[in-house]
Write a structure and sequence with these properties.
Elements lengths: L1 H22 L2 E8 L1 H10 L4 E3 L2 H5 L4 E8 L1 H9 L4 E6 L2 E6 L9 E8 L10 E4 L5 E3 L5 E6 L5 E5 L6 E4 L8 E2 L10 E3 L4 E3 L7 E5 H7 L4 H8 L3 E4 L13 E4 L10 H5 L6 E4 L2 E3 L1 H5 L6 E7 L2 H4 L10 E6 L5 E17 L8 H10 L7 H7 L4 H16 L14 E13 L3 E13 L6 E15 L2 E15 L6 H5 L17 E2 L8 E2 L1 H7 L3 E20 L2 E20 L19 E24 L2 E24 L14 E2 L6 E20 L3 E12 L8 E12 L12 E15 L10 E10 L2 E9 L7 E14 L4 E13 L2 E5 L8 E5 L1 E19 L4 E19 L1 H19 L29 E10 L6 E4 L5 E2 L7 E6 L4 E11 L2 E16 L1 H8 L10 H4 L27 E17 L2 H4 L6 E15 L11 E12 L1
Parallel strand pairs: 2-5, 6-12, 18-21, 39-43
Antiparallel strand pairs: 1-3, 4-5, 6-9, 7-8, 7-10, 10-11, 13-14, 15-20, 16-17, 18-19, 20-21, 22-23, 22-54, 23-24, 24-25, 25-26, 26-29, 27-28, 29-30, 30-31, 31-32, 32-33, 32-34, 34-35, 35-36, 36-37, 37-40, 38-39, 40-41, 41-44, 42-43, 44-45, 45-50, 46-47, 46-49, 47-48, 50-51, 51-52, 52-53, 53-54
């Protein structure tokens, strides 16, 4: 059976090769030319490569011929007739050889197999007898057979991506060869999304990560893997949602260049998010987040002006270019990968009070003593009631009740992923089918994300034109946990039991000394039908035409269409705790059902014409192109109320829309058109020059500012190619790069420049509906632009065993665009304007060294590390931002004057003790503002502040706030090791963070402002002032006044984490080929193994972080 399939493959392959040679028609008019010149003329009109011996063709007389529409066979027959030479076509290679070189009966037959460094077969290797130029290629199993007229001849083995091997036959009849990977790797080519450029001629800052490198870090999360290899790429830690699989991460490259979060629209369109390009087209972060990592061929991160300016208005935040795997020619091959992951919740950062200590904290706080506040509010008019309540809770403690509430909503989860890729084809047609199923389970019970994906890839080559189509359909189901927020369980009092004596879950507790009723979140989970879920379906079709017009001239056209539908639903039973206190007359308010639907449609097209020409030592690469993009987004949502009971949870059972609301909807249409050009000049591979120009037009900006130009210019010097260094034994690469340019940002609300209105749908006058101005337009709204400057160094020493890549950047963002909410007295809610300028400057360094290498034993040990430092500075702010700062301080003082108490969670005066975002010229957007604290007065237990005049005071004033720290660390990055020992490989990665500060909200919310109606941090007992003379960091436990933003809670954060570990093993081929497999690889991963930090705070407050162990099986057959 195998033999039959192989013979069929060979026949199809030969038919394909013959088909190409028959389809290629030549037009030649040659007079008195050498045969070598004829070969060159044929090569210029086709893909054929000629292999010949100079001595064989030296005696051939000059030829003259004039043909039009002839095949290569006809031309070769005419040229070589009567010369004693023959020819043979192998794929698109033409071998010229003596006519009798392979026909003699004394020929020696050589057989063998070609393997790579891991022992896997390499198909398609050219095996040539150097002295005679006859040859063959290896088959799909790497085997070859060749007749050789001379037992002392030399065989040449060559294939793209491997070093050429020359082996003397020495009379042997079997020669097996192990190919060695070329020193040049995938990052020798920079993929920009529009065109590719060699690193030797590139003046920009870019990092390319191969599929193998990505999977050395993670088998599931491509974003987490990226930040290991490039320190400029950063995933912002989400301390609230931890490892929630349904929360998209926030990412940035080289800091924040836009003002964050001043409007609801900007929260939906993160203005600091990089642009993501996949196979030449822009996609959403969600699309990349849900992409199967096994489908990725490489990811390139473009950072500076030379690298990104070709994208113009989309380039300010950097570009992430993703290339997916294309089908390779050959017989039908099946690639299957299974990944299984066990995740465990990480609760190590929670240090809550146990039942005994919680009761003691309540006693020390005086909650079981008669106080006027309790009498006034709750009517507790005697000490006896409080004594009985204390004894009731003490009895529970003594009986052994110590409920571990935070262990209830979490579990060890198991996730599994299946990836299938089927490929095959020949030189004319290549095809692939892809399918993926990823069932990711979260550590909060019943939460998860299920991804389904199926697609096809088809490419067809007709002469010099390549057609390619990639169709993909992805469906995602994302159920949220019905257990609610993890913070609810961290607040539950440990002296309360979960169930009553009958084994039923208790619904609510009345035993708090503050009178606050606590509801058991497990009651709703076990007895009610609450749910929250979302789903979406994405349809994507990419089509491209790539035409090699003549040698060096290429025209490529691409068009992409995306359609995505999303649905969100959330049901709260009428028996849920938030509706318990409603009266019988408020039936129509019981229960709620939210439904939200959205639809996105995008069409994106571009045309690129590129030309490459080499003239002696001059290399020119020119590109011109244009693109057009249109995006449409619409959404509608509503909330129904008034459900009869828990079982009737269809939205139609609601009796009305939510009180005070009506169905809501929105629509956005944005258009972008651009024209661009790029010129790259390279002299002698030494001196480099890059220049780009782009003009964009966007519907997002004012009518007077519709278009804007963007540009870049760069220079480079390949020092290692200087004549005096070419023979250097230690310097392999030394390149200096510098560039400057202007890029833009368009991650903003579609109608930000337009005046928008909202209808009074509930009021009418003479059958007409009125409107009011919701947001005032600004036809002068300018483009937000960034001047990027970068200087870089690439260095490789000692046969590439020590490699360094460094960049210093200076990025100035001008005319910041933001929408701010303003006073209703103006007649409208918001206004969008250009608000100022921001600077991001810093450096990033990547260092890699091979400390040990033994090619014969396939052993190497590599160490790597990187570091990033970024400084953010506000250069200029508008009057609107100055007014915003003043209003924030006024609001803080207004709330502080109201006082407030931590006794009752329902207190209307409860305000946050966290700092608020402020903007000041010369300072950072990540600066932490608070009032300076002199500590806790040992006599009174009260906090002493330092006001803006340098005087001590016990009165907190928002106007006394100064910068206490910055959440941006001084240095951060990754380091690790990659080790290979034969068929084993070991990869370890670590993350570090040095020099930044953090505002410790755990101390604020669960120590200082601790509400003892609920459970709190253990530091409430250990580190609070209790009596005169105490030197403690926190106030008296009896002090119920609310604390505000204070320097006491700003802490230096230095951390170290082991983020990933992988051990993999390639099974030996002789073992697996017996069961029909070509390659099998086993891997074990561990994620988020440990983390140590100088800051003690709760992490994952709404959804815990997790640690994981994964098993991966990759096989090909």
């Amino acid at each position: 059976m195998k033999l039959s399939l192989f013979m069929m493959f060979v026949i199809l392959w030969q038919v394909s090769a013959n088909s190409y040679s028959q389809e290629t028609k030549l037009k030649l008019d040659i007079s008195n030319a050498s045969v070598k010149e004829v070969f060159k003329a044929i090569k210029s009109q086709s893909r054929f490569t000629f292999i010949f011996n100079e001595e064989d063709i030296a005696q051939v007389k000059a030829v003259s011929l004039s043909v039009n529409g002839e095949t290569v066979e006809s031309v070769l027959s005419a040229c070589l007739q009567g010369t004693g030479l023959s020819w043979q076509v192998i794929d698109d290679v033409v071998i010229i050889k003596p006519s009798k070189s392979i026909s003699q009966q004394t020929d020696l037959v050589i057989t063998g197999q070609v393997l790579d460094e891991k022992g896997q077969p390499v198909p398609g290797v050219n095996v040539i007898v150097v002295e005679y130029n006859n040859g063959t290629i290896s088959d799909v199993e790497g085997n070859y057979e060749l007749k050789v007229p001379d037992a002392n001849a030399t065989l040449s083995f060559s294939f793209i991506g491997f070093e050429k091997q020359l082996i003397k036959i020495d009379g042997r009849s079997e020669i097996n060869v192990q190919m060695k990977t070329e020193v040049s790797k995938i990052d020798d080519v920079i993929v920009t999304g529009y065109y590719n450029q060699t690193k030797e001629s590139f003046t920009g800052a870019a990092t390319t990560i191969s599929a193998e490198d990505l999977q050395a870090v993670s088998n599931t999360n491509v974003l987490a893997a990226l930040q290991v290899y490039d320190p400029s790429f950063k995933i912002m830690e989400n301390n609230e949602f931890g490892s929630d699989p349904n929360k998209l991460p926030e990412i940035e490259i080289r800091g924040k260049g836009s003002i964050p979060g001043l409007s609801e629209n900007e929260l939906r369109s993160n203005p600091n998010q990089p642009t993501i390009i996949m196979d030449g087209f822009e996609v959403s972060l969600e699309k990349l987040y849900d992409l199967d990592i096994n489908r990725i061929a490489s990811v390139t991160i473009l950072k500076d002006a030379s690298a990104t300016a070709i994208y113009g208005s989309r380039a300010a935040n950097g570009i992430i270019v993703v290339e997916t795997k294309a089908p390779e020619k050959g017989k039908l091959r099946v690639n299957y990968t299974f990944d299984g992951t066990v995740s465990a919740p990480d609760l190590s950062d929670y240090n809550l009070l146990n039942a005994e200590d919680k009761l003691e904290a309540e006693r020390l706080a005086g909650l079981y003593e008669t106080r006027k506040s309790l009498i006034d509010i709750h009517g507790y008019n005697d000490q006896l009631y409080l004594d009985n309540l204390y004894n009731y809770n003490l009895k529970a403690v003594k009986s052994g009740v110590n409920t571990d509430w935070i262990a209830q909503p979490v579990e060890n989860s198991f996730s599994h992923k299946h990836s299938l890729f089927i490929e095959g084809g020949d030189n004319v047609i290549k095809y692939a089918l892809e399918a993926n199923y990823n069932d990711e389970s979260g550590v909060m019970k019943e939460s998860g994300r299920k991804r389904y994906s199926i697609g096809s890839i088809l490419s067809y080559r007709y002469k010099d034109i390549l057609f390619r189509n990639h169709l993909n359909v992805t469906h995602v189901n994302a159920p949220e946990t019905p257990y609610g927020s993890f913070s609810e369980y961290a607040r539950m009092n440990p002296y309360n039991r979960m169930k009553d004596d009958n084994g039923r879950y208790i619904q609510q507790y009345y035993n708090s000394p503050t009178g606050v009723r606590q509801f058991n979140p497990l009651y709703d989970v076990e007895n009610l039908s609450n749910f929250s879920k979302s789903k979406y379906t994405n349809f994507t079709n990419n089509f491209s035409i790539d035409w090699s017009i003549i040698e060096g001239l290429r025209l490529k056209g691409n068009v992409s269409m995306q359609l995505q539908n999303k649905n969100n639903q959330k049901f709260r039973s009428p028996e849920s705790r938030e509706f318990v206190n409603l009266s019988s007359n408020e039936f129509n308010l019981r229960g709620s059902y939210y439904v939200g639907d959205s639809e996105m449609f995008m069409i994106d097209g571009n045309v690129v014409l590129s030309y490459f020409k080499q003239l002696n030592k001059h290399f020119v690469n020119a590109v011109i192109g244009s693109n057009l993009k249109e995006s449409k987004y619409s959404s509608e949502d509503y909330t129904a109320q008034g459900f009869p009971n828990d079982r009737l949870h269809y939205v139609g059972f609601g009796t009305q829309f939510e009180k005070g609301s009506t169905p809501n909807g929105s629509e956005e249409t944005t258009r972008l058109i651009g024209a661009f050009s790029n010129l790259n000049y390279n002299y002698d591979n030494r001196f480099l020059m890059d220049a780009s120009l782009r003009i964009d037009g966007s519907s997002k900006f004012g009518s007077k500012q519709r278009t804007a130009p963007f540009w870049s210019a760069g220079l480079g010097w390949n020092i290692h190619n200087e004549p005096f260094l070419k023979d250097s034994n230690f310097l392999n690469e030394a390149r200096i790069r510098a560039n400057i340019g202007e890029t833009g940002g368009t991650n903003f609300y579609a109608y930000q420049a337009l005046t928008t209105y909202e209808y009074f749908t509930d009021k009418h006058y003479r059958y007409q509906t009125g409107t009011y101005v919701k947001a005032l337009g600004n036809d002068e709204l300018k483009w937000q632009t960034t001047i990027k400057q970068n200087i870089g160094l690439d260095l490789a020493l000692f046969n590439n065993r020590l490699m360094l890549k460094g960049n210093y950047y200076y990025d100035t963002t001008k005319d910041l665009v933001s929408q701010v909410t303003i006073a209703p007295s103006t007649g409208f809610d918001s206004y969008t304007e250009n608000m100022g300028d921001v600077l991001n400057k810093g450096f990033e360094i990547n260092l890699s060294t091979t400390v040990y290498k033994n090619n014969s034993k396939r052993i190497f040990v590599n160490l790597f590390g990187n570091v990033r430092h970024n400084t953010n500075q506000i250069l200029k702010i508008s009057d609107s931002l100055k007014a915003y700062n003043e209003s924030v301080m006024a609001k803080q003082n207004e709330e502080a004057a109201k006082g407030g108490s931590t006794d009752y969670t329902n207190s209307a005066n409860l305000i946050s003790g966290s700092p608020v975002l402020q903007f000041e010229e010369g300072e950072s957007m990540s600066a932490i503002y608070a009032v300076r604290s002199l500590g806790i007065d040992p006599v009174t237990g009260k906090e002493v502040y330092l006001d803006r005049f340098g005087n001590s005071t016990m009165i907190w004033d928002a106007r006394d706030q100064v910068i206490i720290g910055d959440s941006q660390p001084e240095f951060e990055g990754y380091f690790g090791t990659n080790t290979n020992i034969g068929d084993f490989s070991i990869n370890l990665t670590f993350n570090y963070r040095l020099g930044g500060q953090v505002y410790n909200n755990t101390v604020i919310n669960k120590v200082e402002n601790a509400n003892l109606s609920y459970n709190v941090d253990s530091r409430v007992l250990e580190q609070r002032w209790t009596q005169e003379g105490d030197i403690k960091p926190y106030r008296s436990i009896r002090d119920k006044s609310l604390v505000r933003a204070s320097s006491r809670f700003v802490e230096d954060e230095n951390s170290l984490a082991m983020t990933s570990a992988r051990v993999s093993y390639d099974l030996k081929r002789e073992w697996i080929q017996k069961i029909g497999l070509r390659q099998t690889k086993l891997s074990v991963y561990m994620g988020d193994i440990f983390r140590v930090s100088t800051v003690e705070r709760e992490r994952g407050t709404s959804y815990p972080f997790a640690r994981s162990v994964s098993f991966s099986l990759q096989t090909k057959f």
